[in-house]
Amino acid sequence: MFTRTESFREFIRLYPVVSVIVAIHIALYLLTILPIFPNYWFFEHFSGVNFYILEGEVWRLITPIFMHSGFSHMLFNSFSLVLFGPALERLLSGGKFLLIYLVSGIIANVATLILEPLTYTHVGSSGAIFGLFGYYIAMIVFQKNKLSKENSQIIITLCVVSLIMTFIQPNINITAHLFGLIGGFLLGYVIKK
Fold this sequence. Notes:
70% of the residues lie in helices and 2% in strands. By secondary structure, the protein is an all-alpha fold. The protein has a two-stranded antiparallel sheet. The radius of gyration is 16 Å and the shape is globular.
């Protein structure tokens, strides 16, 4: 379920939503580092900044889901999406998968807005990715026949390790991780295959 054996072309054809999201991650990252663009403009206008959101720049509840603070940040989140997204995209359909991904990310960013200081600035798709974990956990709890015991154990183990790392690593938006997970779980209860 989580082993990728497809060729690059097959992956794009089979998982178009995951492919487009990863392409957006890469494109925005390149726009922030290539010297032919006004690099800082993207961070200035797409980062989640609580003060600006309250001032009416509500797009900042969505755009941080696709922005990353550096190569390793973008690579890790994109890699996580490539590992865990395809199975859900196949199970749910592209539209439902995209809905869960975006709504989980928005829930994470709204929680960040409510619980973090006005000056708090954040980027990254981790809240949305934790939403996918939350959806998987809801499947384990509410739809026991959808995942094998082995895949359920993999998801639970990775979720626990990811949560532990959330509290150990510096510069992590703990609020986004936790509320992305909760949001995905609640969506998994409401939106079933």
